[in-house]
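Before drawing any conclusions, I looked closely at one protein's amino acid sequence and its backbone structure tokens, quoted below without any editing.
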Amino acid sequence: MTGRCLSHSNPVLARSSAAYGPSVTGLRCCPLGVSQRSHAAPAIPQLSRCSAVVRAAAAGVPVPSPAPASAAPQLTSEVLAPPQIFQKCLDIGVGKANSSALKIFLMAVLGGAFVSIGGFLALTVGMNCPGIASANPGLQKMIFGAFGFPLAVLLVVMTGAELFTGNTFFLPLAILEKKASVQQLLKSWFFSYIGNVLGCLLLVTAVRQTGLLAEAAAPGNMSVVKTSLTTAQVVVRSILANWLVCMAFWLANGAQSLPGKIVGIWFPISAFAAMGLEHSVANMFIVPMGIALGAPVSISAFIWNNLIPVSIGNVLAGACCVALPFALAYGTFGSKA
């Protein structure tokens, strides 16, 4: 091929070069007639890889699969939507309905003990601020509400303990959605109630033995006030109290994190305590504590003037103010109405 171009020696190649340019052949003619590699475009990486894959497959060599593309990050909320909270509370109600009487009773003893611990803390801190109480009674009430009972409800929520006032919401919810029977509701209410009473009385005995409230006037004064209210006052106060308590359970179940649960519990529980509303399980500790410390209140006065009407108001709040409207809004009960 010396002295002439390669394309001249091959008519077909010459015609291809003329039609498409020298890049097709990858060769060009130099002035001396020696063929040289042209500066053609580099091979496409994808085609090179495909060729390598084909050769590997032909040789029987396993071809590694390409790494999967990383999934886009999913945005999640720390708070459930109301229909999701409804479903979660309904599941809790169904679980409570199917619990054995023994389990309900034992967990209710714990629930009463937790509420009593919260009441003990509230009396120790919130009712032991005489200077603040005289100068700023509103602040003193806020301190009483902020410390104690929010801790009690947090312990109940995080341990699964039974609280009668919470069951006045969870069980009617399951009844309205046809997930539980009236018999199961009565079983839950009965054993959670007597378990709460026993848990509170055990803590009254323990706290009295500590002597830490021996000189405190607050338990006795509160016992006298609570047993001196009219029936109408007690019932309305107890409805408002358990409305807030059940909303605390609703908010706690809507939160996905422990800080969220704490915030959801703190606001409604501290509010009911600061406002001086009536909660049956809290009174199972406060009034017997006052009686144990010498308050001029009889057990019969406590039961008839306070405990029974407060319990009735708590039931009305849980069933009618919380369970019913949410079942109408988010449940199958509402779709049939």
In short: Residues 299-330 form the longest helix (32 residues). The chain is about 70% helix and 0% strand. The two ends are 98 Å apart (CA to CA).
